[in-house]
Amino acid sequence: MTSSSGAVVTRFAPSPTGFLHIGGARTALFNWLFARHHGGKVLLRIEDTDRKRSTTEAIDAILDGLDWLGLDFDGEPTYQFQRAARHAEVANQLLESGHAYKCFATPEELEAMRAEQRANKQPMRYDGRWRDRDPSEAPDGAPFVIRLKTPQDGETVIDDAVQGRVTVQNAEIDDYVLLRADGTPTYMLAVVVDDHDMGVTHVIRGDDHLNNAFRQLPIYRAMGWEEPVYAHIPLIHGNDGAKMSKRHGALGADTYRDEYGILPEALFNYLLRLGWGHGDREEFTKEEAIAAFDLDGVGKSPSRFDLKKLENLNGHYIRAADDARLAMLVAPRMQGKVDIALLEKAMPQLKLRAKNLDELADGAAFLFKSRPLSIDEKAAKLLDDNGRAYLTRVSQALHGENDWTIEALEATSKSLAEQLDVGFGKLAQPMRAALTGTTTSPGIFDVLVLLGRDEALARIDDQIDPAVATSGADNT
Questions:
Q1: Going by CATH, does the domain composed of 377-471 fall within 1.10.10.350?
Q2: CA 476, CA 472: separation in Å to the nearest integer?
Q3: Is 33:289 a contact under the CB 8 Å cutoff?
Q4: Fold agreement between 9-76+235-307 and 81-233
Q5: Which residues are annotated as part of the binding site for ATP?
Q6: Hey, which CATH number is domain 9-76+235-307, 3.40.50.620, 2.60.40.1930, 3.30.1490.150, 3.40.50.2300?
C-alpha cells in the first residue's frame, strides 16, 4: 500500500457518523487539489472504528457529497475498522521493542488519579505508574492496555506547512493508550498506521488536530517510519467570527444542494476561496484551481463562512450554466406537471436574477399555472378598476397582433402606451399581474412569448372579467 518514493499522496479521512459537513468538504477539497496540482494521489479512508455511531447511511451520504462536488479519489476507499488486526500488530511491535508497555491500572485507580489531579488543579494526564514496572507485579490474568512510552524530556518541533514552526514540551504529552484491554486499537494508533501503510506524504487537516500531531509523531519515530509533512488548516467560523454552528451554515453538502439549491461548481469555488487566496482572483474553474493551488496560499487565520456570498457566487454560476441542465435540476423542485422543453426555453430569462435553484423554480412557476390564475396580494392591487381598464386596451391591441415575437409585441405595446399618453409601466404592471399572478417575472415580452399567444391572451382576458378575476384571487 506504500507509495513510490517522491510522489505526493494525500488522504481525506472522514468519520461516518453523519453527513459530509462543510468543514470536511473543504478539507477534502484541499487534499484533492494539492494532490492533483503535484501530479500525486489522493486517497479516501473511512474512519469507522466508532461502531456505535458509524452507519452505512452516513458513508453513503459522504460518498454522495464528494461525488457531487466532483472530487474523485484514487483506488477504492480504505475502511479503518477492517484493519484492526494490523493496528494491533504494530502495538505489539512497539511493546516488543520497548517503545510501549503494559499498563494494569484499573478503572477505579485511574479515576482516583484524575480526582486527585482535579483537586490539585493539575493537568489531567496519565501519571506513568506502570511505565517502569515489571508486568509480573500484576495479578495473574489481570486485564491491561498497551501504552506508548513517549519521550519525557526535551521538546518536539513540527514545521507545519500552514502554521509554521510549532513547539511542544514533551513533558506535556502523556503515555496514551495504543491498544485497549479488549484488544481494539485507539484512534491515535490507527491513524498513524493507516497513514504510513497508505503511503501518505502530506497530512492536510483541520488545526483542531494539531495537538494530535505531537502525540502521533512518537509512533512514527519509534517504528522508524518516514514522517509526513503536516499542514493544519484553520477552522471555518461563522460570519460573526464565532465558532461555526448550524446557525452559521455548518450543514452537510447535501443540504446546500437539496435545500439551498446551490450548484456544485459554486460550492467548489466558494470552499476553495475559504481560507486560500491567489491574488485578488475570486472565480476559478476546476482546472484553474488545480493549476493554482498550493499550501503557501492557505492563511493562518480562521475563515468566515458567509451564506450571502455563497448565494451571490451561485448566481454567477447559474447564469453561466447550460439551460438544459438547469431545466433538469429545476423541474423536480416544481409542483405539478412540467414541460421540460418550455422550462429550458425560459431559462435565459429566468436565470438573469436567480441566486439558487429554488428562485429559478419560483420564477418559472407562472408558466405551468392553471387558469384562472391564483393572484397574490400585491398583484391583486394592480388589478383594480384602472388596471383592468388598461388590460382591456392591451387585450384589444394584442388580439390584433399576429406576429407573436418579442420585437413585434414590444412595438405594439409601446405604441399603445403612447396613444394612452402613459408610461409603459402603467400597462406592464397589470399585464404582469394578469399573466403571472405575481409582481415579479422575466421581461413582460418574454413572458408573452413563452406563454404563447392563446394562453397569454386568455390570462389577460380572465382578469378583465371581474367574475373570473374574483374566482382566481388568492385570499390566503
A1: yes
A2: 12
A3: yes
A4: yes
A5: 246
A6: 3.40.50.620
Q: Which residues are annotated as a binding site?
A: 246
DSSP for 364-382 reads: HGGGGPPSSPPB-HHHHHH
57: exposed, middle or buried (Cβ count in 10 Å: 0-12, 13-18, 19+): exposed
Residues that are catalytic: 246
What is the residue extent of each domain of the chain?
Answer: 9-76+235-307, 81-233, 321-368, 377-471
Rounded CA-CA distance 373/437 in Å is 6
User: CA 207, CA 402: separation in Å to the nearest integer?
Assistant: 67
pLDDT tens by residue, 398-451: 999 999 999 999 999 999 999 999 999 999 999 999 999 999 888 999 999 999
- Distance (Å, whole) CA 196 – CA 371: 67
pLDDT in tens, 174-222: 999 999 999 999 999 999 999 999 999 999 999 999 999 999 999 999 9
Is the domain spanning 81-233 CATH 3.30.360.10? The answer is: no
In this structure, the number of other CB atoms found within 10 A of the CB of residue 184 comes to 15
Looking at residues 65-71, what average pLDDT do you find?
96
Phi first, then psi, for residue 438 (nearest 5°) are -135, 180
In terms of C-beta density within 10 A (0-12 exposed, 13-18 middle, 19 or more buried), how is residue 26 classed? buried
Q: Which residue, 174, 179, 180, is CA-closest to 127?
A: 174
What is the helix (H) or strand (E) element at residue 288, kind and residue range? helix 286-292
Measured at the CA of 296, the angle between CA 294 and CA 302, to 5 degrees, comes to 105
31 within 8 A of 42, measured Cβ to Cβ: yes
Cβ contacts of 265 within 8 Å, gap of 6 or more: 70, 286, 317
With beta carbons less than 8 A apart as the criterion, state whether 33 and 12 touch.
Answer: no
